[in-house]
Amino acid sequence: SSGASCEFAQLAGAVDADGLRTQIDELATFSDTPAPSVTRILYTENDISARTYIKDSMKSAGLTVREDAIGNIFGRWQGTEETSVVGTGSHVDAIPYAGKYDGVVGVLGAIEAIRALRKVGFTPRRSLEVIMFTSEEPTRFGFGCLGSRAMAGSRNIYEILEGAMDKDNISFTEAARTAGYLKEGEDLKSVAVTNETYSGFVELHIEQGPTLENEGIAIGIITAIAAPASLKVDFKGDGGHAGAVLMPFRNDAGLAAAELAVAVEQHVLASGSIDTVGTTGVMQIHPGAVNSIPREAHLEIDVRDIDEDRRDMVVEKIHQSAKDISNRRNVELQSFDVVNQDPPAQSGATIVEAATSASDELGFKSKHMISRAYHDSLFMSRITPTGMIFIPCHKGYSHRPDEYSSMEDIVRGVQVLALTLAKLSHK
Ligand code: GLV
Ligand code: MN
Ligand code: MN
Ligand code: MN
């Protein structure tokens, strides 16, 4: 059958906005911080509760649920043909004091898209698979997209995870076991999937920027994802008494850190492009007492660009500044670690095409755009043609408690996702 074309006239009415709203609200209650904020950190009790919620939701949508060793959750709607699968999904972990839509819309929305496709009598040729990825956010172990990186078999990821510790010195392995994953005898490498597994992947996500809302456009179709890098830097000085050590005899690690944070901004601004961004999001000094000269300083720096070479040049300049500051201030540069330095991703033409025509056929205005935030799609694009569907979010607010997308916008996104999946399933 033409499959994708016969039933979609009814798709608009098939998405259950109230049901989806209820699920988004219920999932938001699994949080380490009070509403309206949402904090859900990898392998904690609330993360585990959220996982159970997602598995139940998948099951009630008639999906066959399975989990891998790292805790990626897969819900499959078996197609009529044994061939490569169409994937969709996102994450439900949330950084400290985040909102309830980032990631969640792409998981619960995907399950709702499946329900809607069932309602309109759709029959998948290729199987459709909803994926909830483990830890898209970097909160607990310092780098993000653990589940999708591991699926894509990204170089070194398995060794890095085996050596990773959180801030309380709990190892990745121990944390995973606590949550029921990475069981005795299970190997992280088993998470990798072959390039033949998926025929395509599409992720629905809130924009996390203001463009769609400002321009009154319902749907953004992502053509590329900017390249993220993150750095960890440690300075060490001698510290000492804030009254007794005279200025010429100090080597203040806190000032070295402050200077480096300013240098990050300078190097980013000097790149010549508005697309280069840099953030020193973590700056800690030790011992952190008013009458003590900072003896240690720890920084975490995020640098991104759509141009990988330009991003790498900024990273190199930051490294050079760290060495210069260390020499000039006689502060030891204890470590300068590039935690991740990922290439950008280009969307697959087949996915962009399917999402664009889905949007057109449903009568929604869409535009092609890039994603400045990273997503699991950055890694899925390494193993299959990948694309993303963005919906507006209020003022572009994200990673904050007042993040908001209207149900109308979410439902439009779910409809476009459903039709895109239908098309790809019959391709
Ligand atoms: C993802 O959360 C990002 O930091 O872009
Ligand atoms: Mn996020
Ligand atoms: Mn996200
Ligand atoms: Mn994220």
TrEMBL record:
<comment type="subunit">
    <text>Homodimer.</text>
</comment>
<keyword id="KW-0479">Metal-binding</keyword>
<keyword id="KW-0464">Manganese</keyword>
<dbReference type="InterPro" id="IPR036264">
    <property type="entry name" value="Bact_exopeptidase_dim_dom"/>
</dbReference>
<dbReference type="InterPro" id="IPR002933">
    <property type="entry name" value="Peptidase_M20"/>
</dbReference>
<dbReference type="GO" id="GO:0005783">
    <property type="term" value="C:endoplasmic reticulum"/>
</dbReference>
<dbReference type="GO" id="GO:0016813">
    <property type="term" value="F:hydrolase activity, acting on carbon-nitrogen (but not peptide) bonds, in linear amidines"/>
</dbReference>
<dbReference type="GO" id="GO:0000256">
    <property type="term" value="P:allantoin catabolic process"/>
</dbReference>
<keyword id="KW-0659">Purine metabolism</keyword>
<dbReference type="GO" id="GO:0030145">
    <property type="term" value="F:manganese ion binding"/>
</dbReference>
<protein>
    <recommendedName>
        <fullName>Peptidase M20 dimerisation domain-containing protein</fullName>
    </recommendedName>
</protein>
<dbReference type="GO" id="GO:0010136">
    <property type="term" value="P:ureide catabolic process"/>
</dbReference>
<keyword id="KW-0378">Hydrolase</keyword>
<dbReference type="GO" id="GO:0006145">
    <property type="term" value="P:purine nucleobase catabolic process"/>
</dbReference>
<dbReference type="GO" id="GO:0004848">
    <property type="term" value="F:ureidoglycolate hydrolase activity"/>
</dbReference>
<dbReference type="Pfam" id="PF01546">
    <property type="entry name" value="Peptidase_M20"/>
</dbReference>
<feature type="domain" description="Peptidase M20 dimerisation">
    <location>
        <begin position="229"/>
        <end position="325"/>
    </location>
</feature>
<dbReference type="InterPro" id="IPR011650">
    <property type="entry name" value="Peptidase_M20_dimer"/>
</dbReference>
<dbReference type="InterPro" id="IPR010158">
    <property type="entry name" value="Amidase_Cbmase"/>
</dbReference>
<keyword id="KW-0732">Signal</keyword>
<dbReference type="Pfam" id="PF07687">
    <property type="entry name" value="M20_dimer"/>
</dbReference>
